[in-house]
Structures are given as C-alpha cells and as structure tokens.
Design brief:
With 81 residues, this protein is an alpha+beta fold. The chain is 25% helix and 17% strand. The chain contains 2 helices and 2 strands; from the N terminus they run E-H-H-E. The protein has a two-stranded antiparallel ribbon with strand order 1-2. The longest helix has 12 residues.
Length: 81
C-alpha cells in the first residue's frame, strides 16, 4: 500500500472531486463519510461552505488530499479485496 499526502494552496474542491470521480466505480466502494450530499455538485458546495468559515492566511494551505493506493491481489474477488 502506498500512502501519499498532498497539500493544495487553492480550495479547488470541484477539480479534486472530478479527479476522485474520474473512473466510474460502484457506490458500494465509495467512501463519503459525514457528507449530506451524494452527487459531486452537492459535495463541492458542502466543502465550499465549510471553507468559507475559515480565515484566509497568506500562502496558507487550503486543504490536504490523502491518497491510499492499494495493489490488487491476484485471485481475490472484488468483495474479498
């Protein structure tokens, strides 16, 4: 497994959600905890509303994007993986 943490200076939630949803996957494998909306537009609006409550800082980090990359094991079904 590879873990990568990336920071973003701009609150580009729409671009990030588009990157995450670039490949169609079944809803059973989507992890979207603590969100009211399910479609990308509502999720983006939730993040933007939350970000508007933060005070801006010069050259500050707007968000972190954590990536978990798991290698598919041979001989396992999708459910077992």
């Amino acid at each position: 497994m590879i873990v990568k943490s990336m920071s973003r200076k701009q609150a580009s939630f729409g671009q990030l959600i588009g990157y995450i949803d670039r490949e169609p996957i079944p809803d059973a494998y989507r992890i979207r905890h603590n969100l009211f909306g399910r479609d990308p537009q509502h999720v983006r609006e939730e993040f933007e509303a939350n970000a508007s409550l933060l005070s801006s800082r010069k050259n500050g980090v707007a968000l972190y994007h954590e990536i978990l990359s798991i290698t598919r094991a041979r001989g396992l079904s999708d459910e077992q993986q």
